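User: Could you check the structure of this?
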Amino acid sequence: MDTMIVNDHILLWNYASIKVLDVRHTMLRAGESLRSYRLPASMFLLAARGGAQVLLDELELEIKRYQVVHSGKGTHLDIIPREEEFEYYMIFYKASMPLPSRQEMLSLLERSNPFHLQYCFSPNQPVSLLDKIKLMDQEWRHSGSLERLQVKSLFYQFVYSTMQQLYEQGVDMKEPDLAAQAILYLKDHYTESINLELLAESLNYSVPHFSALFKRRTGYSPIDYLIRIRIDKAAHLLVETDATLREIAASVGYKDPYYLSRLFKKNMGISPDRFRIRERARLQAEDSPSNFIRSSIVVQRSPRYIVDDNHYQYNNEGDLPMYRPFKSTTAATLLLCIALLLSACSGGASSTNQASGGNPSVSTPQSLAQTNSSHPDNNLQTKLVSTINGDIQIPLNPKRIVVDQYLGSFIALGVTPIGTPGLHRKNPYLAKALAEVQDIGDVSGISLEKVIDLQPDLIITGFAEDEGRYEKFTKIAPTVSVPYGKLKNAHEELTFFGKLLGKEKEAETWLADYDRRIAAARERVEKVVPSNATFSILELMSKSTYVYGDNFGRGGQAVYQALGFKPPAPVTEEILKKQWVQLSNEALSQYAGDYIILTSNDRTLEDIKADPIWSTLDAVKNNHVYVWKEERSWYYDPIAVLSQTEEIAAWLTGQH
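Assistant: Sure, the predicted structure tokens are below.
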């Protein structure tokens, strides 16, 4: 193996945070097997006795006593004994990069991930490895913390011995077929709500890396591939069963039959009803009513399933016995004729709609909220707004709004969205207003299914370029994209969204109160803090220290924008330009101001004072350090900034 790759793997093993998740000892006898078990984490397997055929996805191995097998999370594992008994041990572990990690380490992990590799080899010192894993199994059966620490220690010894022999032997290592694993998962779970982030996490990849690999391999994004699978299944059911569209929608993972109908027409170029008529007539004409509609993208193969330890084999993928089989009659031909007639009559209108992209026509570009009209589908009043994506029609008085950013601005305007990412729902400054707001997934991995279920009439996104999110949202409801960071402060946010929602007066009222309270806080602080005092916004995560600017949370907006303080002069330009910088212990004193606002979940002021490095800082010596947890410092919407400003002002004036 290439020496550089070996060194990269060793570096990552040293850098990663390792957690042993489970140790299992299993005996399979003749006639027993493990089928299509999807690994929940990275795994080492050591054969203790007997032999077996092992499949890691599509990689076939014949293993015997003492051989070691490794594979990553998401792999489909099959074990079929070749002898009367096959005894083996499995160690499941999780390797994660400490956050935040240096970019070069993250890039290295994406290029060559040792925790995902698939390989098998015969160790030179098998008895030593077996002894270690037996002791791990013994200690794992005890639940004490000390025993778990012993297991972790033994695991590192096991990994060291394994790596040493692995690289000495030059064992061939295989990268897993990530796309194949994901496709198999999508085929097995297409009826469920699937979130892009959860799918990537199930394979232990970041969302951007996973999406890029999947699209390069298949030509589709993961969500688009899932949609195609569902459409193929729906097409099969339309022809082979008498199920209603609502029943079919539920069976392929959609609660809304109308949404399925729109997706079906977009992908197949024809409505579900017309597709059913056309295909049944075609099959009748061919005298082959039992032919299946074949998928254009899904490989036809016998699926492999496992739920807990129960194994189920399916011979006819997609067959659902709850539906009655369809019997062709001459009525199908008559229906087809009617459909063709209707199609001919409506052809001109259809062509016109498709030529315009199916979007409502718009007039000359205008600023926000200029033109009102009646919505053609539901008689809702709409207005034309100009956005970075062109002019679009949105409801004049939207009632069901989904937002993936800017939640605080909406709450400030008295508008409570119906859905937002889970991270925003945890915002303590908005807790009282979020009781009925639904979780639509992670900020970086929104669940389109959850958004669809909420039936929004307006969507606001701050992540237009993230995996084509804007395009996906527009298929659900009118969508306004406002790239996050474009609106720099509370005044810009409230003014923009106030105009968008027709809440200009509410925005003016809220901002007037905001300005009054900010001015009062600044006035109180100016009486006790010297005007030339410098402030630093710092964060302690694990053993790393970070410094932040005025637009990245942690209290930066409150200190630098609202209260008007500055960072230490020598580093002001760097901090405000980069917004965050990782610090070494040696550089800490250069970035530490007269006052420090410090985010830490596990360090107290007493810990800081006892630290040999931190205790040398003037801010620590003078008791000018404010320590708070990330749940209070991370958010920087208008409501959070106002509360943080008053909180810090109370501390500075001795009222906290």
